[in-house]
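Reminder to self: keep the SMILES exactly as supplied, no canonicalising. Ligand is NAP.
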Amino acid sequence: MRIGVIGAGQLGGTLATWCAESGHEVAVTSRHPDRLTDLVEHGEGHIRALTIPEAAAFGEVLFFAPNWESAREAIDLAHDAMAGKVVIDATNPARVSVPIEGAPGPGGLGSFAPGFPSALDVPAFVCVPDAPGTNRELGVPARSGFEELIGWAPDAHWVKAFNTISTDVLDRRRGHDPLLAEFVCTDQRDAREAACRIIQELGFAPFFAGGPEAARLTETGGPLQRREVDVQDAKDVLAEALATIH
Ligand SMILES: NC(=O)c1ccc[n+]([C@@H]2O[C@H](COP(=O)([O-])OP(=O)(O)OC[C@H]3O[C@@H](n4cnc5c(N)ncnc54)[C@H](OP(=O)(O)O)[C@@H]3O)[C@@H](O)[C@H]2O)c1
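Structure tokens returned for the bound complex:
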């Protein structure tokens, strides 16, 4: 399969290498293509460096892994080629979520996927940019970055995955029993199938967490962010995560 990786930094570069090792043809992007020389060489002919629009057009499936501050700019460049394609979003918005005193719940944001509580049960939060160098995570955001991305490129088939665990942990756990659970959030069948297939090929165990609203649990401030979970424990950990937002 042809895979385009938009944002080949620490995470995107790692995923690109593993996808090439799994037999895929991969395109990676950077505003500074010289920084991709090692990655391309390591790919032994299966990784090429392209611009964002070119990589988005090249990939049958896309990984979206720029830093969050660049997400909108990257979407604007890739938008046209993303339409109808599966896009695996691995980003985490850098922000804190601060409860709004006395505010009602975030009605109108839609309900969680089947089996999830209503969004009306979730306290209202306002999201503000995180201060540089800080890592305050005060709660589940009222709206995930993933839902924002869907709004920016609604014709893409979005799926959230690979955003909860750092690359060093992924590298340590890759292919080892018990397999590490990778939480998957989407409401698109083809996106779920493609993400699950790639997660398995890369040596992890896909675990479906719910629709786009469930991404709130996995991103910055959510209870699944940075949780290293063995696949046999994923169901209980997801249930615990849901309980924290009641
Ligand atoms: N690193 C991890 O372990 C890890 C794990 C899970 C999730 N994540 C998430 O993955 C995302 C990327 O993290 P990272 O650690 O891989 O970051 P990183 O190493 O800093 O890489 C960031 C990538 O974003 C690209 N980028 C920056 N500004 C851009 C712009 N204006 N237009 C287009 N592309 C731009 C960079 O490309 P240039 O070469 O052009 O600068 C680079 O490829 C973050 O949202 C992070 O939360 C990371």
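Points to follow up:
Residues 7-12, 30-32, 35, 65-68, 70, 73-74, 90-92, 163, 166-167 surround NAP (CB under 6 Å).
The chain is about 35% helix and 20% strand.
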